[in-house]
Amino acid sequence: MRLTGMLVAVVLFSLSSMSHAEDRVYLLAGQSNMMGKGKIAELPASYRQTPTNVKFYYQGREKGLGQFAYFGPEIGFAHEVARAFPNDRHIIIKQAATGSTIERWLPGQALYKGLLRQVGFSLPVEHDKKIDAIVWMQGESDARNADLAGQYGGRLNRLIQALRNDLNSPNSLFILGQINPEDLAFSKVAQVQASQRQAQQASGNTILVSTEGLGKMYDHVHYNAQGQLELGKRFAKAYIEQARKRNQLAVR
Fold this sequence. Notes:
Structural class: alpha/beta
Strand content: 15-25%
Distance between the termini: 36 Å
Number of strands: 9
Radius of gyration: 19 Å
Order of helices and strands: HEHEEEEHEHEHEHEH
Shape: globular
Protein backbone atom coordinates (compact mmCIF):
# COMPACT_ATOMS: atom_id res chain seq x y z
CA MET A 1 0.00 0.00 0.00
CA ARG A 2 2.82 2.39 0.87
CA LEU A 3 4.48 1.78 -2.53
CA THR A 4 1.18 2.34 -4.32
CA GLY A 5 0.71 5.61 -2.48
CA MET A 6 4.17 6.74 -3.43
CA LEU A 7 3.53 5.93 -7.10
CA VAL A 8 0.28 7.87 -7.04
CA ALA A 9 2.06 10.85 -5.51
CA VAL A 10 4.75 10.76 -8.19
CA VAL A 11 2.15 10.59 -10.97
CA LEU A 12 0.15 13.46 -9.49
CA PHE A 13 3.32 15.54 -9.13
CA SER A 14 4.27 14.83 -12.73
CA LEU A 15 0.82 15.79 -14.01
CA SER A 16 0.93 18.95 -11.93
CA SER A 17 4.30 19.90 -13.42
CA MET A 18 3.05 19.23 -16.95
CA SER A 19 -0.04 21.35 -16.42
CA HIS A 20 2.13 24.36 -15.64
CA ALA A 21 4.35 23.91 -18.70
CA GLU A 22 4.16 26.74 -21.19
CA ASP A 23 5.76 28.21 -24.27
CA ARG A 24 8.12 31.10 -23.67
CA VAL A 25 8.84 33.17 -26.77
CA TYR A 26 11.85 35.44 -27.17
CA LEU A 27 12.75 37.82 -29.96
CA LEU A 28 16.45 38.59 -30.45
CA ALA A 29 17.39 41.44 -32.79
CA GLY A 30 20.10 43.97 -33.55
CA GLN A 31 23.30 44.40 -35.52
CA SER A 32 26.64 42.59 -35.71
CA ASN A 33 27.01 41.74 -32.02
CA MET A 34 23.59 40.13 -32.19
CA MET A 35 24.48 38.36 -35.42
CA GLY A 36 27.66 37.22 -33.71
CA LYS A 37 31.26 36.50 -34.64
CA GLY A 38 31.97 33.97 -31.93
CA LYS A 39 33.48 30.79 -33.33
CA ILE A 40 31.52 27.60 -32.67
CA ALA A 41 34.82 25.70 -32.70
CA GLU A 42 35.86 27.58 -29.55
CA LEU A 43 32.79 26.56 -27.55
CA PRO A 44 32.73 23.68 -25.05
CA ALA A 45 31.08 20.63 -26.63
CA SER A 46 28.10 20.85 -24.25
CA TYR A 47 27.09 24.18 -25.78
CA ARG A 48 27.11 22.95 -29.37
CA GLN A 49 23.89 20.99 -28.94
CA THR A 50 20.43 22.53 -28.87
CA PRO A 51 18.64 21.80 -25.56
CA THR A 52 15.68 19.48 -26.08
CA ASN A 53 13.20 22.10 -24.84
CA VAL A 54 14.50 24.87 -27.15
CA LYS A 55 13.47 25.77 -30.69
CA PHE A 56 15.66 28.28 -32.50
CA TYR A 57 14.44 30.15 -35.57
CA TYR A 58 16.78 32.20 -37.73
CA GLN A 59 16.15 33.60 -41.22
CA GLY A 60 12.61 32.25 -41.11
CA ARG A 61 13.52 28.61 -40.48
CA GLU A 62 14.18 26.36 -37.53
CA LYS A 63 17.92 25.84 -37.05
CA GLY A 64 20.24 24.05 -34.67
CA LEU A 65 22.11 26.35 -32.31
CA GLY A 66 25.47 24.93 -33.35
CA GLN A 67 24.65 24.71 -37.04
CA PHE A 68 26.70 27.71 -38.18
CA ALA A 69 30.42 28.44 -37.97
CA TYR A 70 29.71 31.57 -35.90
CA PHE A 71 27.20 32.40 -33.20
CA GLY A 72 25.75 35.29 -31.22
CA PRO A 73 24.22 35.53 -27.72
CA GLU A 74 21.48 32.99 -28.52
CA ILE A 75 23.54 30.00 -27.35
CA GLY A 76 24.29 31.23 -23.85
CA PHE A 77 20.75 32.55 -23.59
CA ALA A 78 19.14 29.31 -24.72
CA HIS A 79 21.05 27.06 -22.34
CA GLU A 80 20.37 29.29 -19.34
CA VAL A 81 16.60 29.63 -19.84
CA ALA A 82 16.32 25.94 -20.68
CA ARG A 83 17.90 25.05 -17.35
CA ALA A 84 15.94 27.65 -15.39
CA PHE A 85 12.57 26.48 -16.71
CA PRO A 86 13.10 22.84 -17.75
CA ASN A 87 9.40 21.99 -18.10
CA ASP A 88 8.72 24.80 -20.55
CA ARG A 89 9.38 25.07 -24.27
CA HIS A 90 11.57 28.00 -25.27
CA ILE A 91 11.08 29.50 -28.73
CA ILE A 92 13.89 31.84 -29.78
CA ILE A 93 13.45 33.97 -32.92
CA LYS A 94 16.47 35.91 -34.13
CA GLN A 95 17.09 38.51 -36.81
CA ALA A 96 20.18 40.68 -37.20
CA ALA A 97 21.69 43.03 -39.78
CA THR A 98 25.35 43.91 -39.45
CA GLY A 99 26.21 47.60 -39.49
CA SER A 100 22.57 48.70 -39.21
CA THR A 101 21.55 51.96 -37.53
CA ILE A 102 18.44 52.07 -35.39
CA GLU A 103 16.68 54.18 -38.03
CA ARG A 104 16.62 51.12 -40.30
CA TRP A 105 14.71 49.20 -37.59
CA LEU A 106 11.93 51.74 -37.10
CA PRO A 107 8.29 51.03 -38.08
CA GLY A 108 7.80 51.20 -41.83
CA GLN A 109 11.43 50.34 -42.56
CA ALA A 110 12.49 47.08 -44.21
CA LEU A 111 14.23 45.62 -41.16
CA TYR A 112 11.22 46.27 -38.94
CA LYS A 113 8.86 44.68 -41.44
CA GLY A 114 11.24 41.76 -41.80
CA LEU A 115 11.38 41.29 -38.05
CA LEU A 116 7.61 41.02 -37.82
CA ARG A 117 7.60 38.57 -40.73
CA GLN A 118 10.17 36.42 -38.93
CA VAL A 119 7.79 36.11 -36.00
CA GLY A 120 4.98 35.14 -38.37
CA PHE A 121 7.15 32.52 -40.09
CA SER A 122 8.33 31.04 -36.80
CA LEU A 123 5.09 30.78 -34.84
CA PRO A 124 2.16 28.65 -36.03
CA VAL A 125 -0.92 30.54 -37.20
CA GLU A 126 -2.90 29.24 -34.24
CA HIS A 127 -0.18 30.32 -31.79
CA ASP A 128 -1.51 33.25 -29.78
CA LYS A 129 1.38 33.41 -27.30
CA LYS A 130 2.71 36.86 -26.65
CA ILE A 131 6.44 37.64 -26.74
CA ASP A 132 7.93 37.16 -23.28
CA ALA A 133 11.11 39.13 -23.93
CA ILE A 134 12.66 41.24 -26.68
CA VAL A 135 16.46 41.25 -26.54
CA TRP A 136 18.11 44.16 -28.34
CA MET A 137 21.86 44.41 -29.09
CA GLN A 138 22.39 47.45 -31.32
CA GLY A 139 23.67 51.02 -31.29
CA GLU A 140 27.32 50.82 -32.25
CA SER A 141 26.66 52.21 -35.74
CA ASP A 142 24.78 55.17 -34.27
CA ALA A 143 27.78 55.96 -32.07
CA ARG A 144 29.84 56.88 -35.15
CA ASN A 145 27.88 60.04 -35.92
CA ALA A 146 26.81 63.01 -33.77
CA ASP A 147 23.45 63.41 -35.53
CA LEU A 148 22.58 59.71 -35.26
CA ALA A 149 23.68 59.57 -31.62
CA GLY A 150 21.58 62.63 -30.83
CA GLN A 151 18.44 60.95 -32.15
CA TYR A 152 19.13 57.52 -30.71
CA GLY A 153 17.15 57.91 -27.50
CA GLY A 154 13.93 59.02 -29.17
CA ARG A 155 14.20 56.33 -31.81
CA LEU A 156 14.87 53.63 -29.23
CA ASN A 157 11.82 54.57 -27.19
CA ARG A 158 9.74 54.59 -30.37
CA LEU A 159 11.00 51.14 -31.32
CA ILE A 160 10.24 49.66 -27.91
CA GLN A 161 6.68 50.96 -27.96
CA ALA A 162 6.07 49.95 -31.58
CA LEU A 163 7.27 46.37 -31.09
CA ARG A 164 5.17 45.87 -28.01
CA ASN A 165 2.11 47.21 -29.83
CA ASP A 166 2.61 45.35 -33.11
CA LEU A 167 3.46 42.07 -31.38
CA ASN A 168 0.44 42.43 -29.10
CA SER A 169 2.81 42.08 -26.14
CA PRO A 170 2.48 45.27 -24.07
CA ASN A 171 4.08 43.69 -21.02
CA SER A 172 7.02 42.02 -22.73
CA LEU A 173 10.38 42.55 -21.07
CA PHE A 174 12.72 44.65 -23.22
CA ILE A 175 16.36 43.77 -22.57
CA LEU A 176 19.02 46.15 -23.85
CA GLY A 177 22.67 45.23 -24.27
CA GLN A 178 24.88 48.22 -23.45
CA ILE A 179 27.17 49.08 -26.35
CA ASN A 180 30.87 49.48 -25.60
CA PRO A 181 33.04 49.54 -28.76
CA GLU A 182 36.60 50.56 -27.92
CA ASP A 183 37.64 52.25 -31.13
CA LEU A 184 38.11 55.95 -31.89
CA ALA A 185 35.72 55.68 -34.85
CA PHE A 186 32.86 55.31 -32.35
CA SER A 187 33.25 58.79 -30.90
CA LYS A 188 29.70 59.09 -29.51
CA VAL A 189 29.60 55.92 -27.43
CA ALA A 190 28.96 57.81 -24.19
CA GLN A 191 25.98 59.61 -25.74
CA VAL A 192 24.37 56.40 -26.99
CA GLN A 193 25.02 54.73 -23.63
CA ALA A 194 23.30 57.64 -21.89
CA SER A 195 20.29 57.19 -24.18
CA GLN A 196 20.19 53.50 -23.30
CA ARG A 197 20.18 54.32 -19.58
CA GLN A 198 17.41 56.86 -20.12
CA ALA A 199 15.35 54.28 -22.02
CA GLN A 200 15.57 51.96 -19.05
CA GLN A 201 14.00 54.68 -16.92
CA ALA A 202 11.49 56.00 -19.47
CA SER A 203 10.13 52.72 -20.83
CA GLY A 204 8.62 50.44 -18.22
CA ASN A 205 9.73 46.83 -17.93
CA THR A 206 13.04 47.63 -19.65
CA ILE A 207 16.41 46.37 -18.39
CA LEU A 208 19.87 47.51 -19.45
CA VAL A 209 22.45 44.72 -19.29
CA SER A 210 26.10 45.57 -18.74
CA THR A 211 28.65 44.33 -21.26
CA GLU A 212 31.65 45.34 -19.18
CA GLY A 213 34.45 42.80 -19.13
CA LEU A 214 33.21 40.69 -22.03
CA GLY A 215 35.97 39.28 -24.22
CA LYS A 216 36.41 40.97 -27.58
CA MET A 217 38.08 40.22 -30.86
CA TYR A 218 41.13 42.03 -32.22
CA ASP A 219 38.94 44.91 -33.48
CA HIS A 220 37.84 45.80 -29.91
CA VAL A 221 34.26 46.03 -31.18
CA HIS A 222 32.93 42.49 -31.65
CA TYR A 223 32.72 39.90 -28.88
CA ASN A 224 34.70 36.71 -29.18
CA ALA A 225 33.32 33.25 -28.42
CA GLN A 226 33.58 33.53 -24.65
CA GLY A 227 32.28 37.10 -24.76
CA GLN A 228 29.24 36.07 -26.79
CA LEU A 229 28.53 33.12 -24.54
CA GLU A 230 28.65 35.32 -21.45
CA LEU A 231 26.56 38.04 -23.13
CA GLY A 232 23.80 35.51 -23.76
CA LYS A 233 23.97 34.35 -20.15
CA ARG A 234 23.63 37.93 -18.91
CA PHE A 235 20.59 38.48 -21.10
CA ALA A 236 19.10 35.24 -19.77
CA LYS A 237 19.82 36.17 -16.16
CA ALA A 238 17.92 39.44 -16.61
CA TYR A 239 14.95 37.57 -18.03
CA ILE A 240 15.00 34.75 -15.49
CA GLU A 241 15.08 37.11 -12.51
CA GLN A 242 12.16 39.12 -13.88
CA ALA A 243 10.15 36.01 -14.78
CA ARG A 244 10.58 34.56 -11.29
CA LYS A 245 9.44 37.82 -9.73
CA ARG A 246 6.31 37.70 -11.87
CA ASN A 247 5.67 34.10 -10.84
CA GLN A 248 5.99 35.02 -7.16
CA LEU A 249 3.52 37.85 -7.56
CA ALA A 250 1.10 35.60 -9.44
CA VAL A 251 0.85 33.04 -6.63
CA ARG A 252 0.29 35.58 -3.88
